[in-house]
Write a structure and sequence with these properties.
globular; 22 strands; single chain; Ubiquitin-like (UB roll); 14 helices
Length: about 500
């Protein structure tokens, strides 16, 4: 690789182990180019979180004050730098991780007898998933997945809100990305395409639709623009037939978006005689409980622990992340994504590790690390510190408190539920026994099920059928509930002993 810019003032960047190369202008930032390759910038490239570390394997990239704040002298000497602070003047070879966990899809069919083709889109904060569906048979004809291009503005919805309020255009890139996906799937069959239906959380809904996000930035988080939004392909700049309708399904309130509405449909909550619960865990945890008579929902600020944010060695479920931890004969055994040495821990691994620590007595019911070291070794160089356990307590306390309050709203108890479905990527990988051990959920283990991508499955059902008959969905603001703080406080600790229903790990 040349050791200087080329005649056009561009420098070549190579990413390992991805074997990807691209050029950037000398002295320019790397954020957009690296985000396109899957590198995440949890704090929106502000240099505050330290979550976008890369290692310089070849070339020269001087350390700045942000690098020195987040890396030790040894790490700096080993080439570690914050990608969001990098402005390379010379060619570089960078070692970096890529978001590699498979995007959750849904292969179920939903025949309804409607003519033509439709496209269902799950617009997630991190990933985009779309499926082309034969509306008459329900058969999935094509699939597209991509990373959400907004990740350069931050990995969580609050970072996106701050970026948008600061003037960043987060609408154009997401419309262009999804437009490319639907155009590729519809190519050669445009004449048959009748509708594109999108679902997503409230922030994704507002950003895609070009709606102001200011109401979502502060309490009471009540936006006047929660309804369904409709577009023509021309309004979005999409090369689709003029007769095709594009709509973004309605949100339910606050931070409870149309992805939860779709999840209610996917789990059959709206048709069930018995009570069903749906929980989607992330920075904002959404909870829905109900049946064909009544459905209630709420969101709670769980914080970033379930996505491994604010955890010292936290990372996404990428190569090198500890995804599962088991206690075997008194010792911890870690499962690492991609094999090899662990370099961090993701949300499901964090829940497992704390559950295992509780079982072996290394973590006390109060959440304190028992030996007074304030460190809990997990595997290799990966360890939890006291603040990491505290972050998980805050997150699980918020979810448990919200769940209890919603049950009371419909005059029910956990034992009255037929099933609890865990939606999304975290719900797909977290182990029910670990969730029970830390008190995240309070129910028999056999009641808890990983439900996969309920947003995409529900979007296909909404797309293929006539609008389902839904009972009224009542949205409650937990922040405004006077009982929430007391419930939250009482939900922070861990139980003294495992629930009797909990199987041994």
């Amino acid at each position: 690789m040349k050791s200087e810019p080329n005649s056009n003032g561009l420098v070549r960047i190579r990413l390992e182990p991805l074997a990807v190369e691209f050029d950037v202008a000398a002295g320019s930032e790397l954020v957009s180019a690296l985000a396109a390759q899957g590198l995440e910038f949890p704090c929106g490239a502000s240099g505050l979180c330290g979550g976008c570390g890369v290692r310089v394997r070849s070339g020269w990239l001087p350390a700045n004050s942000a690098d020195r704040e987040h890396f030790s002298i040894d790490e700096l000497n080993d080439g570690w730098r914050l990608a969001c602070q990098a402005h390379p003047q010379l060619p570089l070879v960078l070692e970096c991780g890529q978001w590699e966990m498979d995007v959750l899809l849904d292969e179920s069919s939903s025949p309804a007898g409607r003519e033509g083709l439709g496209i269902a889109v799950d617009l997630g904060t991190t990933t985009l998933a779309a499926q082309l569906v034969n509306l008459a048979t329900g058969a999935v004809l094509a699939v597209e997945t991509e990373l959400n291009p907004q990740t350069a503005a931050g990995s969580d919805v609050m970072s996106r809100i701050r970026a948008a309020m600061g003037g960043a255009d987060l609408t154009t890139p997401i419309r262009e990305a999804i437009g490319g996906m639907v155009e590729r799937m519809a190519r050669s069959r445009e004449a048959e395409l009748v509708e594109v239906l999108l679902v997503g959380n409230t922030v994704m809904h507002h950003l895609f639709c070009g709606l102001p996000v200011d109401p979502l930035a502060a309490a009471p988080f009540a936006s006047p623009n929660l309804g369904e939004q409709r577009f023509t392909p021309a309004e979005l700049g999409w090369m689709l037939p003029v007769q095709c309708t594009v709509r973004f399904a309605e949100c339910l309130g606050g931070f409870v978006g149309s992805d939860i509405l779709a999840g209610m449909v996917a789990t059959g909550m709206h048709q069930s005689a018995e009570l069903i619960a749906l929980v989607d865990l992330g920075t904002n945890g959404e909870i829905a409980i109900g049946n064909r008579e009544r459905m209630v929902c709420a969101s709670t600020a769980a914080g970033p622990a379930f996505e491994a944010g604010a955890v010292r060695m936290g990372m996404r479920a990428a190569t090198g992340a500890i995804a599962h931890v088991a206690l075997e004969e008194g010792r911890l055994r870690a499962t690492v994504v991609g094999g090899g040495e662990p370099r961090g821990i993701c949300g499901s691994g964090l829940v497992d590790a704390v559950a295992a620590g509780l079982k072996m007595g290394a973590i006390l019911p109060s959440g304190r690390i028992a030996d007074g070291s304030k460190r809990f070794p997990v595997a290799g160089a990966v360890e939890l510190v006291q603040a990491d356990v505290r972050e998980l307590q805050l997150a699980k306390g918020a979810i448990a408190a919200g769940f209890r309050i919603l049950l009371r709203r419909i005059d029910a108890k956990a034992q009255d539920l037929r099933a609890i479905y865990l939606a999304g990527a975290f719900g797909n990988y977290v182990q029910a026994a670990s969730a029970l051990r830390i008190g995240l959920l309070e129910a028999p283990a056999g009641m808890i099920h990983a439900a996969g991508n309920t947003a995409l499955r529900g979007a296909k059902l909404l797309l293929a059928a006539a609008e389902p008959v839904l009972p009224p969905v009542e949205h409650f603001s937990l922040a405004a509930d006077p009982a929430f703080q007391d419930e939250f406080g009482s939900s922070m600790g861990f139980a003294e002993n495992p629930r009797p229903e909990e199987p041994a790990t």
